[in-house]
């Protein structure tokens, strides 16, 4: 019987839970479950991509926010000196 691939997670939290669950399952196996290994790997790859994309988006947003904040602070400092 073929195992059906689950839909990709949509949130960081859901993707992270999949990664934790799959890691724990793989670590605690006394024998590798070869029949489900590809499904586990594919789910983990999909979950990793979701996490990576979310982290990168947050990092870009933070960088933009701090850049705007730094520009505003520098502008204020220049105005105060005048």
Q: Count helical runs.
A: 2
Structural class: mainly alpha
Based on the structure, what is the oligomeric state of the protein chains? single chain
Round the Cα radius of gyration to an integer and report it: 22 Å
Return the string of H and E elements. HH
Portion of residues in beta strands equals under 5%
Query: How would you state the average pLDDT, rounded?
Result: 86
Report, as a whole number of angstroms, the end-to-end distance: 77 Å
Number of domains: 1
Helical content (DSSP H or I, runs of 4+):
over 70%
Largest sheet: none
Counted beta strands:
0
Globular, elongated, flat, extended or rod-shaped: what is the shape? Answer: rod-shaped
- Unreliable runs, pLDDT <50, ≥5 residues? none
Question: What does this protein structure show overall?
Answer:
- There is one protein chain.
- By secondary structure, this protein is mainly alpha-helical.
- The chain has one domain.
- It contains 2 helices and no strands.
- Helix 1 crosses helix 2.
- It is rod-shaped.
- The chain starts with 11 loop residues before the first helix and ends with a helix.
């Amino acid at each position: 019987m073929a195992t059906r691939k689950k839909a990709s997670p949509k949130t960081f939290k859901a993707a992270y839970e999949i990664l934790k669950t799959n890691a724990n399952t793989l670590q605690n196996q006394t024998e590798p479950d070869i029949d489900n290994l590809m499904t586990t790997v594919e789910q983990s790859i999909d979950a990793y991509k979701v996490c990576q994309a979310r982290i990168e988006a947050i990092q870009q947003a933070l960088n933009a926010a701090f850049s705007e904040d730094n520009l505003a602070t520098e502008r204020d400092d220049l105005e105060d000196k005048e």
